């Protein structure tokens, strides 16, 4: 009977050229890419709706802000994933929590702006 790891290695090697010791890294990086891209497409309509509600004059600032945050988050997450003393499972728990914190900060700042404006 073939073990699950050997079966997974056989399936993956039919799709891409991968050595057995690279399977874990391939799955971690693929899942990380999938979840980050999924989160982006979940947040995209919220950002667009926020842009519509704030008006066209604030639209360039919102897009520059989201670009700046992306340019800051990508190297930071790469640095965190490359740290040798952190396990990948701990880091994969950290990434969604940091996204959650940034969304909570965004909501808090929006409520503060509403209180100041009205």
From TrEMBL:
It comes from the Eukaryota. The chain crosses the membrane at residues 25-47, 59-82. This is Uncharacterized protein. Keywords: Membrane, Transmembrane, Transmembrane helix.
């Amino acid at each position: 009977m073939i073990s699950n790891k050997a079966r997974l290695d056989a399936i993956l090697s039919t799709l891409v050229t991968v050595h057995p010791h690279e399977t874990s890294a391939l799955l971690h990086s693929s899942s990380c890419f999938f979840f980050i891209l999924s989160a982006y497409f979940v947040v995209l309509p919220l950002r667009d709706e926020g842009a519509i509600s704030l008006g066209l004059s604030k639209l360039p600032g919102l897009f520059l802000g989201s670009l700046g945050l992306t340019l800051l988050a990508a190297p930071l997450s790469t640095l965190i994933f490359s740290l040798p003393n952190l396990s990948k499972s701990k880091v994969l728990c950290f990434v969604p929590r940091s996204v959650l914190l940034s969304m909570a900060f965004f909501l808090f700042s929006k409520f503060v702006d509403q209180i100041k404006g009205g």
